């Protein structure tokens, strides 16, 4: 049997992965969705290294987005939704930053952002869409005219065009493709060569990874390639699209990772409190980011009792009966 | 004997009752989730509850607290992704009913879930559209949840996130929408619907113990109160299902009746 | 636990499914790809009932397409590839029908057809594409001007447009969406309610089903819904998109069905011979279609020895060592 | 001592040698499959073989006879679908090399796999583009397989299925293509390449025992023969791998050397 993608191992520390593949000013796609599979270990590493001026792109993002905004790493966002379910109907640091004029935001809908990533993944310049007509998404630009067409900012937010295939005159919206510099993904399984398996909902993680120039994957378990190849129908990304594999158990904490652990309601409630003010949030960063240079340090800070409390039941995939108030 | 119940309980049930058996129910966070779950368990057992994240027909043994909660991935018929979910939302062969909350609404059911004040420097920033604009554009029909007060029921939205009946009458069709639009607004006071011709909001149902005048005073625009009927109070079965099966921890229901 | 999609069972015979859901003149999307997972039981049923004037749409199709063309059920085809691997580099009946002017064909590429089905699945009017410029795919129409814009035939085969998001003037091709009347899928597993699981490559079957107005699924096994819901990550279609579930063991024969059986080289070689002339092909239809009103009759005609010969090995998913000459 | 080998063996090896280690190899049916498989097993072990059907990096314990053969789904790193495969084919970060066959080719490497004669009533109908047009448009580079004769190497194609260098020179870039184009044509006589400036086909390698004159006589257009070098014959290792590992049943290799 021939060697598979033989190649060198892509396993590296979060520090090495972030240091090598993320730079000031990059456009970064955040995987996950609100309270699930946020790439938190990677986000904390970005915050710790003080990376600046990031341009975040996501559909609906909660915890990773809010931490990066709160830590001052982010200059611009293109997004459909910044919230964390019942734990933060609007993301806390995000809200404050927007209200204080410290963040440039361009709003789309979830379907629109999904189509924009899909266009990037398929190497297409744009996608048509019938969602968004007569809304202010079409009217209000988040980025000024001086930025239009610069770097990765498209010359138009969206364009109204004629549908050439309709029998009656009909309009269609065209949405520009997204091709992020980097996509961050947290997965349940990866092998050293970069093969990735996500369990549960994949959201838009796969399209984001396929649209990006570089991909960093953190994972709960590093498993042998042979294990993943026993049932390739279940795999999510091929190795040649992945640049770094970071072993990060509980790497989505305090958000959930299906079949491994639930979201951590205590931490998320505590976060809501701490994120409410600049001073208290600095305290949060000191304790949970600065003082925890490694994932091991972070998990020690969380503590065994809380990790056990949120551990997933193998049948349900979450922690049944968890106190989620 | 009258049963005690809360406004949230009444709202979830009033909305859930509008689902037809067999509908494909698209649920957002919060009360939307309760309404879809209670519909599935009582009024419309052959309906399918699905989420924009791609979870389709979960068992809902426990109530999800977000549309990406692992509880929307458990026991489903299919775990997919956003693209599949939105392709279902707008599918011509499906009667998809969307349950949504919003921050502001106007007389024609257009909604705002983006911001209050100037878009670039808002007084209050909300999470943004999420799937709200998509549901208002693509679903077969939308049922909205609102707290009823004059700051939320406004003459003019600060930002139009999701198009309802636009300026009313034929405006929505003329703007190119092929279907959809809001069918009802469920608040803590009653249920509003939209006039078939003018598409203007009117009071359709008042909850027991609420006076039409309260609705008028809580609404920032002119509302037709003349067609209001009394809403049926929750039945014992409805309350039992809601409290014991759907949200026993009262995570979204909130405090029990006094 | 609430009832799931409670509903009535969608299980019915191939005859009932085809009789209820496929009509003369329908646009039918064929699932599978050349030698794998062709919906052969359903195709034979269509041929047996003498359904006429079908408009087939597919990317790369082999056996089902050729049988339907040979049986005279097809008037038009939109396709990228009509072949069966090494068994028929060009489909036999298809080639003859085109050369004799008995079939209207509109040619696209596989990526183009894929994007057209994707557009239909996403309820979008068209898709942009950068593949096809400067080719005769853009120049030669298969359907005449009198058909353009009639029924499901788009007013243009494709349209060249400006990319409004490019900094330099750049062109893009726009491809019209496909929304077939019916999609035919052969799957390994389905439950009575219509939940579907395909193992191995899915090709474009899922997009075709999501784009269609009606969906007929034939399957190797009908399994309880509870079995499929144990691992919903592996499922392929939700029940509310499926109209009929037809139990058809070896329902893709003589093409392959991963993990169940390989393609049948003897049958495919025999087919190549028989399909070579109108008379011999009539003999093939008499023996394998007309004389076999049920799938049981058909399998009896194939014979136990050939069925055993192509049975898949559980690890490989095909029949290792099968004589494929 | 000289090893005996067939033309098909020489063709598969000549093409396979052009793959760089680490390339992403997109394989069609027939000789393409042999070339990609042999490259992976000898010249470029860290390459990935994938198929337009969505099978990525199968073990190839047995040779597939079509791109949808279950043998392309076995032991892969990922089983996906056509959309994923074509997104890989054109991905800006990947060096994807496509191996393709065709029915006709012209002096600038444009190919026909659709028909001979009038499109609407062809004298001979072929299967059609499949992924050929896409590979010619989107791949980093394409290696073509042809039988060398004047009916196939023609001045003018009956139908242009896949764009090569178009009219030569800058024509391809001017037509808007961002990358790609044919890098070589491997036939039963030798290997043709394309002039860097004019993009016109020239004879680059002659197989042992073949005279340049044979190429000229088998080509329906003017071909530059002056740059032809001798191709290295197959090595013992190459032949052993091809015969014992890649295609032991000789399904595509055909009859062994006399």
Uncertain stretches of chain B: none
Portion of residues in helices of chain A? 25-40%
Give the overall average pLDDT of chain A.
96
Radius of gyration of chain A: 20 Å
Tell me the span between the first and last alpha carbons of chain B.
Answer: 16 Å
Biggest interface found: A-B, 68 and 62 residues
- The CATH topology name of chain A reads Glutaconate Coenzyme A-transferase
Low-confidence stretches of chain A: 1-6
Estimate what percentage of residues of chain A fall within beta strands.
15-25%
Anisotropy-based shape of chain A: globular
Q: Report the count of strand segments of chain B.
A: 14
Gap between N and C termini of chain A: 54 Å
Describe what this molecule looks like in 3D:
The complex is a heterotetramer, with 2 copies of chain A (325 residues) and 2 copies of chain B (258 residues). By secondary structure, chain A is of the alpha/beta class. Chain A has one domain (14-309): Glutaconate Coenzyme A-transferase (3-Layer(aba) Sandwich), CATH 3.40.1080. Chain A has 11 helices and 13 strands. In chain A, the strands form 3 sheets. In chain A, strands 1, 2, 4, 6, 10, 11, 12 and 13 form an 8-stranded mixed sheet that branches. In chain A, helix 2 (40-48) links the parallel strand 1 and strand 2. Chain A is globular, with a radius of gyration of 20 Å. Residues 1-6 of chain A have low confidence and may be disordered. Chain B has 258 residues and is α/β, with parallel strands linked by helices. Chain B is built from 7 helices and 14 strands. In chain B, the strands form 4 sheets. An 8-stranded mixed sheet of chain B has the order 2-1-5-10-11-12-13-14, with helices on both faces. Chain B has a two-stranded antiparallel sheet with strand order 3-4. Chain B has a two-stranded antiparallel sheet with strand order 6-7. In chain B, helix 6 links the parallel strand 13 and strand 14 (229-230). Chain B starts with 6 loop residues before the first helix and ends in a 12-residue tail after the last helix. In chain B, 62% of the residues are buried. The model of chain B has no long low-confidence stretch (mean pLDDT 96). Classes of the chains: A alpha/beta (325), B alpha/beta (258). Chains A and B meet through strand 5, helix 4, helix 5 and helix 6 of A and helix 3, strand 9 and helix 4 of B.
